[in-house]
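Hey, can you fold this one?
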Amino acid sequence: AGAQRGYHSLVVRDDAGINTVADLKGKTLASQSQGSTADTVLRGVVFKQAGLADGDVSVMGVSPAVAVQSLVGNRVNAAFLFEPYDRIAQLVAPVKQIYEVGQNWPFPCMVVITSGKVLEARKDDIWKALDAQQQAIELLEKQPAQASKLIASYFIAEPTLKTLKQGELARETVIEDAIKTQEFTPTVTDKDIERMTELARIMERDGSLKTRDGKPFDVNTVLDLEWQKARKL
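Sure. Predicted structure:
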């Protein structure tokens, strides 16, 4: 099943002299660990579109929270972040957003996976979990204020967030605003599968994905969309 489509942002420090993705050449950027989906999209799509080659940008693989703190502490010039961390960064650090992958190259960054063995043995339980996730997505889409009360503490430990320009903001407000910018979906569409295939080609080119027979990887071999078809989604 699906979960969320990719809305990763490039945020840069105001004092870094970066206005376009190409300006990242020679700069330091915080992202997720090498080989992650975010890293694959960053290197294989964002950098490539900007004409940046391997080694042009020094990429530091860290957690999103550490990336935000690295921006605050001026240890990096930029970061590639997903919500709500890009929103948090823009509130607590002197940064601006210069690129949003969801506007240029949306992709299924979050999906539901399980092993074939578990799916075979516990199909009913898996489907119940997918039904529950569909309900959660409906809450996120229709009642973001209520949803934010349930999840805000996972992202912001303190009840309020101290911002540079807006004073103290309730963490629920920050997360509610982040929720409203996102696209959540319980389905995997044909367009999503096309994007997965493109990602597979990128991973094959950089050597992080290899098949036993040397043939291009077919993402359809690891997809079971019976649940969404049965639910007529």
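The radius of gyration is 19 Å. Let me know if you want another pass with a different chain boundary.
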